[in-house]
Design goal:
single chain, globular, 40% helix
Length: 416
């Protein structure tokens, strides 16, 4: 049966997944604008059940690792890439096989140290730490950090860093209602309850229940720029490419880097994959992400993109050109490594630039067709459960812009 027919058998509003909340291992960690796990599972199930020989899945912009987990659930060997060291950490922890006895022993050690009044530890420091954390909370988080550093097992430390990130999320001075770093009002900062130790202990116990403890397919995760990492992949080596790519340069869309930088400032970088320079300032990760620091000024010959850019003001064109140029280059790599008979499954959104909707769905379709891929199915869904603020960046003379409320799913096949 054709993929288009299999997808169309579902009711139209089925793909909205109204009321769906994160479950199981997807609840671990804090990451913005994550994919809807049940939707990705359902779509991947259709592809896998229709193609019994499929063995591999890649997400070149893996974020919190949603597609990797769902690929694992379908017995696929999964590959993930992300430039954000915190996203890579999440992907590693979520796809690693943990030993129950090791976790139990860890719990005993951690609990004993947390509540020891004689435990000696060093107070952690980094530039602007007092801007983002209250003094007493710095002390509590420093104690937790010191306890984690004493753990000999690197994978246990990785798990504990993720747990610490959840404590940081709820105890920092950052106003978490937006993706960008913004200080809370003084009254709200003063009202933060310092129960860091108790929350950390509870978070460990809750999260370890979701960790993988049985045999799973292979997971290979890379830290870095997708356009560079993808060159390591052999031609026609991946059966399914499932991703939700950036909808524009991170600095002006979803600032994934800013949303995770406070976590990274506390984590020992020796336990992370990636370039330590990425945490040198609070916006570095976003500035080097897709379309961020690209020097390209030549727009690919994509008619829809050219028409769109011609409508933008001169001051807005450069960033959009750089993003689409980088996006095109990555997509070309993906088409190269996709196996014959394999599928590209993209979930994209149309952001606004200069108050004008950027038709990333139509741009993506034109790029895919140019690369000789065959359209199988394109449909839209309402964004109901993806955490997105109702208002995002301000546009000059127009005020705050409404965030997107729909996504487009594009399924394309490589036939030769």
């Amino acid at each position: 049966m054709k993929i288009a027919d299999l997808v169309s058998k579902y009711e139209e509003n089925f793909w909205d997944f109204s009321g769906v909340k994160k479950e199981g291992i997807h609840k671990i960690g804090k990451y913005p604008a994550t994919m809807v796990a049940p939707m990705q599972y359902e779509l991947l199930s259709i592809l896998v059940s229709n193609n019994k020989s499929f063995r591999t899945l890649l997400d070149p912009f893996m974020g919190s690792g949603t597609s990797l987990i769902e690929g694992h659930n379908l017995d696929l060997n999964v590959f993930g890439i992300d430039i954000n060291p915190y996203a890579v950490l999440l992907g590693e922890v979520k796809t690693h096989r943990y030993n129950e006895d090791t976790l139990y022993e860890m719990n005993e050690r951690i609990t004993k140290k947390l509540y020891s009044s004689n435990y000696v530890y060093e107070i952690h420091d980094f530039p602007n730490i007092h801007k983002w954390f209250r003094e007493d909370i710095i002390k509590s988080l420093s104690k937790i950090r010191a306890i984690i550093l004493e753990e000999e097992n690197r994978w246990i430390r990785k798990f504990l860093w993720v747990c610490l990130s959840e404590v940081i999320y709820s105890h920092s001075n950052d106003r978490t209602s937006t993706f960008k770093l913004h200080i809370k009002p003084e009254k709200e900062i003063a009202a933060i309850r310092n129960n860091c130790l108790e929350v950390f202990e509870k978070t460990i116990k809750n999260n370890q229940e979701f960790l993988i403890k049985d045999t799973n397919p292979i997971a290979t995760i890379y830290s870095g720029d997708s356009s560079k990492v993808l060159k390591k992949f052999a031609d026609e080596s991946i059966d399914i490419i499932c991703t939700s790519p950036p909808y524009g340069d991170n600095a002006t869309t979803v600032t994934y880097g800013q949303a995770s930088i406070l976590f990274l400032k506390w984590i020992n970088f020796k336990d992370l994959l990636g370039d330590q320079n990425l945490i040198s300032n609070y916006s570095k990760i976003d500035s080097v992400s897709l379309g961020g620091n690209s020097s390209k000024n030549d727009l690919p010959n994509i008619k829809i993109a050219q028409k769109y850019i011609s409508r933008l003001s001169e001051s807005k064109r450069s960033k959009v050109i750089k993003f689409i140029s980088d996006y095109y280059d990555v997509t070309a790599q993906l088409a190269r490594i996709l196996s014959v008979g394999g599928y590209l499954l993209f979930t994209v959104g149309n952001r606004r630039v200069d108050g004008i909707v950027q038709p990333l769905d139509k741009i993506t379709k034109e790029i895919f067709l140019e690369m000789g891929l065959k359209e199988e199915k394109i449909f839209t869904r309402n964004i109901l459960s993806k955490k997105m603020p109702s208002k995002i960046s301000n546009v000059k003379n127009k005020g705050a812009v409404n965030s997107m409320n729909k996504e487009t799913i594009l399924i394309f096949k490589k036939e030769k």
